[in-house]
Amino acid sequence: MQILIVSGTPGTGKTTISNNVKKYIDVKIISLNELAISENLIEKYDTKRETSVIDNKKIIGFLIELIKEYEKEDPEFLIIESHFSDIVPEQYIDFVIVLRCDPDELYSRLKRRGYKTEKIRENVQSEILGNCVNYFMNKPINTPILEIDTTRASIELITKTVINILTKKVDIKDFYAGKVDWLEKLFQEDRLQTFFD
Ligand SMILES: Nc1ncnc2c1ncn2[C@@H]1O[C@H](COP(=O)(O)OP(=O)(O)OP(=O)(O)O)[C@@H](O)[C@H]1O
Ligand SMILES: [Mg+2]
What is the DSSP string of 136-171? Predict the structure, then answer.
């Protein structure tokens, strides 16, 4: 069983893509967000930021037990998806894919979800800064960090790309993190002030 970590800012499509991958290959999925709720691992609710604060230590303990359970079933792949999936200990990481999304498109996706303006801004800013990629850059992992720009790609195309990466049908160098740079794009367009005060 090989483990794929799917990360990305909320709204980039982690859950959608992971569930779609399941239609084509032998894969189990752990959503850390769902695990936090089902195992009651939420420390508190941050009302100002409208987000749950997770007990990281506890969730890692639960996760390791779950990984061991899945190892017995031995699916070809296990996907662990969440915007905080960088908490997964490095010995359990075989692949890392960070889904990316252009700030304007992400803004629309989060707005459609009914997020309040402040929460949308916070998430879009995080995407512009590439936080989810940076969290992995700071981890001593033995596998390259890959990213897929989901902005104008269909769910089917992204799914196929993920499967091609897992089954080594594409050159993963084409997906090495670093190509997506929303900060530079907005700077060039002189639009940074759209998302930052
Ligand atoms: N490639 C895509 N093109 C257009 N819309 C997409 C794409 N991928 C996902 N979406 C839409 O964006 C929304 C967010 O997707 P999803 O819930 O999978 O994101 P997520 O990364 O799992 O977010 P969260 O971190 O909050 O769980 C959904 O409405 C989904 O249908
Ligand atoms: Mg999700």
Answer: HHTS--SS-EEEEE-TT--HHHHHHHHHHHHTT-S-
| Strand pairing class (77-81; 2-8) | parallel
Task: Please report which confidence band the pLDDT of residue 185 belongs to, taking 50, 70 and 90 as the band edges.
Answer: very high
Index of the ligand 1 atom closest to the CA of residue 150:
1
**Statement: the pTM of the whole predicted model exceeds 0.85:** yes
Distance 1 CA to ligand 1 centre (A): 26
- Measured distance CA(129)–CA(133) in Å, rounded: 9
For 86-132, how does the pLDDT look when each residue is reduced to its tens digit (9 = 90+)?
999 999 999 999 999 999 999 999 999 999 999 999 999 999 999 99
How far does residue 50's CA lie from ligand 1's centre (Å)? Answer: 19
Domains within the chain, CATH numbers bracketed: 2-195 (3.40.50.300)
Cα end-to-end span (Å), the chain: 46
Contact 191, 104 (CB under 8 A): no
What's the number of CA atoms in the CB half-sphere (13 Å) around residue 7?
26
